[in-house]
Amino acid sequence: MKGDKIVLGITQGDINGIGYEVIIKALSDSRLYDICIPIVYGSPKVAAYHRKALNLENFSFNTIRGAEEAGAKRASIINCTDDTVRVELGKSTPIAGEASYKALEAAAQDLAQHKIDVLVTAPINKSNIQSDKFQYAGHTEFLESQFNSGGVLMLMINELFRVGVVTTHVPINKITEYITRDSVLNKLRILQHSLLVDFRITSPRIAVLGLNPHAGDEGLIGEEEQKEIIPAIEAARVENIMVFGPFPGDGFFGSGMYSKFDAILAMYHDQGLIPFKALTLEGGVNFTAGLPVVRTSPAHGTAYDIAGKGVASPDSFRQAIYMACDIFRNRKEYAEISGNPLKPYDGSELS
Predict the structure, then answer these.
(1) Mean pLDDT throughout 105-109?
(2) What's the CATH code, domain 1-150+291-335?
(3) Which residue intervals of the chain bear CATH 3.40.718.10?
(4) Which of 175, 230, 289, 298 could form a cystine bridge with 316, CB 3.0-4.6 A?
(5) What is residue 196's three-state secondary structure?
(6) How confident is the model at residue 351 (pLDDT cuts 50, 70, 90)?
């Protein structure tokens, strides 16, 4: 932190998508500068291209060489690319993939070295970013590897509910391989800890969805609930986690039961994200729970189809910024009130 302001790192994402548009629109809100010092890891050349395309004359970046040079009340940018970078709006290109990786790599290094406090990532293309240096399904898996986490949870958050997933970017025909008692229990532990520390919720209530239709109908439609999910729920209860279920996914969301819980654990990506994005998308945030650092992102993707048209909403990106700052402060406050205020007694006062 610099004073009472959080140093916020932002990665440019795919330069041919809506990343820079939502970044610039979000950073055009002067209220952000009261709580954070934003630094974009990207390309001044690409940023200028997008600013011109958006016809935003009253906004500009201050180009700096390192995070320590960032100042308050103005957005800064660190160049992570070379002069060969080229924007081709709406297209997936190798150049865009390489540029998104270089920005992510630089920001992750600064995050690890505490040069920035939190990280907000603009959307990448999970295909064109692949290389010998990046062989991950997405941001979540990359950051998990970089920060040696004991496990992470992709947690999607909007004004209606929070939903995490046991499996993230896994093919449908392989999901059952990952639905085990231990994997479900581990995700419940991460979710419980995040609700307590990151969101400061006392005695959180967690709902667990079944894997199969009708949550298996007591074994008639699949055995994963009986053999893996229910044992995980029972083990979590022994650890004083208030967990309920398993619930059938369709009835759970269709009846509005999600409003009765502080978070939901779905078994796979689309089971959780389809209702999440169907009910509310523009203000949704993706948070990586379980990391020792804070990372959020907007809930949308590169949106090539509207890139450069000036119609992309910055709401999700703006919420990702505010949430990253809130979680950082919540963690700091939790650490302060949870720490032992008494020094160990060593008898020195009697000498």
Answers:
(1) 97
(2) 3.40.718.10
(3) 1-150+291-335, 160-279
(4) 298
(5) helix
(6) very low
List phi, psi (to 5°) of 73. 70, 10
For the packed helices 19-27 and 44-54, what is the interaxial angle rounded to 10 degrees? Answer: 80
Q: What is the DSSP string of 44-102?
A: HHHHHHHHHHHT-TT---EEESSGGG--TTS-EEEE-S-TT----TT---HHHHHHHHH
Domain 160-279 listed as CATH 3.40.50.620: no
Distance of CA 46 to the CA centre of its chain: 24
pLDDT in tens, 52-73: 988 877 899 999 999 999 998 8
Residues in the chain: 351
Which token pair is 262? Answer: 């502080």
**Contact of 329 with 8, CB cutoff 8 Å:** no
Q: Give the C-alpha separation, 29 to 110, whole Å.
A: 25
List, for residues 299-311, the tens digit of each pLDDT value.
Answer: 999 999 999 999 9
pLDDT tens sequence across 2-33: 888 999 999 999 999 999 999 999 999 999 99
